[in-house]
Amino acid sequence: GAVVSQHPSRVICKSGTSVKIECRSLDFQATTMFWYRQFPKKSLMLMATSNEGSKATYEQGVEKDKFLINHASLTLSTLTVTSAHPEDSSFYICSGVSGGYEQYFGPGTRLTVT
Amino acid sequence: AQSVSQHNHHVILSEAASLELGCNYSYGGTVNLFWYVQYPGQHLQLLLKYFSGDPLVKGIKGFEAEFIKSKFSFNLRKPSVQWSDTAEYFCAVNAGNNDMRFGAGTRLTVKP
What we know:
Radius of gyration of chain B: 13 Å
Radius of gyration of chain A: 13 Å
Low-confidence stretches of chain B: none
Structural class of chain A: mainly beta
Strand content of chain B: over 45%
Oligomer: heterodimer
Number of strands of chain A: 11
């Protein structure tokens, strides 16, 4: 099956700093990538959808200036959490799609803001 | 927009018991349906999917799900669970536009 990686798997940062999370499709070209946020014991919440080479589409309630998404190539998308605060601590998961409806998920990144 | 409901928040079963997890969605058009599993400390994995055809779909590890269009349901079943099935299970619906919506998840605990 298609493989998606995320880096880093865990990150701890201080409040006010920015953190970049990478999402890579290793063996397929992801025309569309998605970023989700998963709260403890909760489901995945879609944050944004990004297509290669164009601006991301953010879900209602997600601050686009806070969660910067870049999908510069068919195998890489990045999520930058700017000026992070403790309430941004969460599990961030990306997924990629290659022309179909099935999404391939990355292993997630645990962000802790102190 | 479509929504997905999973009725059971936490299910506790003994090994060899039968499992059925409910999933209902609200969308009137053509949908693609998925069940994902998340084992402790691991990422989401696809259990099975339905796009079209036979409404009874079989997935990995002995799981199956039945799409009942009239009931807007896609329940997950397994005849005999194992301790290793302990995980979080998510139902997801895609209305054909890459807009995937997940249910709240059902935590399954299987007691040895």
